[in-house]
């Protein structure tokens, strides 16, 4: 069954002095059925994090513009985006007194196929209707403790070291980049990219239900509103991108 794509990107500065997240949604210059969504959560002192996150989004757009799907796989494109951003962020350390780093999560939609990659603790969720299909695993200390069975979801949310990352772009270590994909997609599938300023306040089920029940724009407004309420004056920057596959409009013939 045919479908169309409904999208939305949204941000809120939260209770921080500066917005250091970046998010973008771009189409291929000659292949409009190819869509890239990208989100980065920057870290590194005043303006350093914003600069790092900006480089991730810039590299995403630049690499998408020269993407040749007949000669390059989706994983090669996404891997080059994150590797290129990592290199540029590291180079900025030599020209400034800052220590910039960034997380990154990026999704490439090609027709009925989606491929994604991530580094850090910004997340991608894949929903089918109101059910969760997949979620990226955080490259964080708390995420590792959860994988080892030493913390449950409730304990992870309140752990004092929940913001400690084990991998990110711009660090001295090569970034840990993980990939995922979904094939033969149909209407009813949706994808959410978001920073920890959003996902920290929701269960997977609540995110799935909200995205399912609303349009992309209404879901974004609802999620940001609830996150702001639950942060109670102590919220981080919030960024998100929603990609929903919805029924194609019916054509009327005379």
Automatic annotation (TrEMBL):
> Which UniProt keywords are given for this protein, alphabetically ordered?
Hydrolase
Q: Which PROSITE patterns is this protein grouped with?
A: PPM_2
Q: A Gene Ontology molecular-function term?
A: protein serine/threonine phosphatase activity
Q: Which Gene3D superfamilies match?
A: PPM-type phosphatase domain (3.60.40.10)
PPM-type phosphatase domain residues? 6-245
Whether Protein biosynthesis counts among this entry's keywords is no
Entry-linked InterPro entries: PPM-type-like_dom_sf, PPM-type_phosphatase-like_dom
Q: Which Enzyme Commission number(s) are on file for it?
A: 3.1.3.16
One Pfam family hit: PP2C_2
Its recorded name reads PP2C family protein-serine/threonine phosphatase
Q: Which organism is it from?
A: Thauera sinica
């Amino acid at each position: 069954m045919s479908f169309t794509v409904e999208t939305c990107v949204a941000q809120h500065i939260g209770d921080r002095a500066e917005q250091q997240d970046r998010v973008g949604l771009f189409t291929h210059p000659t292949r409009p059925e190819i869509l890239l969504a990208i989100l980065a959560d920057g870290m590194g002192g005043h303006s350093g994090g914003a600069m790092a996150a900006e480089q991730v989004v810039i590299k995403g757009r630049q690499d998408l513009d020269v993407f040749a799907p007949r000669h390059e796989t989706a994983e090669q494109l996404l891997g080059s985006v994150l590797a290129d951003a990592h290199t540029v962020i590291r180079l900025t350390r030599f020209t400034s007194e800052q220590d910039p780093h960034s997380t990154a999560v990026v999704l490439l939609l090609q027709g009925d196929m989606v491929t994604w990659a991530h580094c850090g603790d910004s997340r991608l969720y894949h929903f089918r209707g109101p059910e969760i299909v997949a979620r990226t695993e955080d490259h964080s200390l708390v995420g590792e403790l959860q994988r080892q069975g030493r913390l449950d979801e409730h304990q992870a949310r309140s752990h004092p070291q929940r913001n400690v990352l084990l991998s990110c772009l711009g660090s001295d270590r090569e970034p840990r980049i993980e990939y995922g994909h979904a094939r033969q997609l149909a209407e009813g599938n949706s994808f959410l990219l978001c920073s920890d300023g959003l996902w920290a306040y929701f269960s997977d089920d609540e995110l799935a239900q909200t995205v399912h029940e609303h349009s992309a724009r209404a879901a974004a407004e609802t999620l940001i509103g609830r996150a702001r309420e639950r942060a109670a004056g102590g919220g981080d920057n919030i960024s998100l991108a929603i990609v929903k596959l919805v029924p194609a409009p019916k054509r009327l013939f005379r």
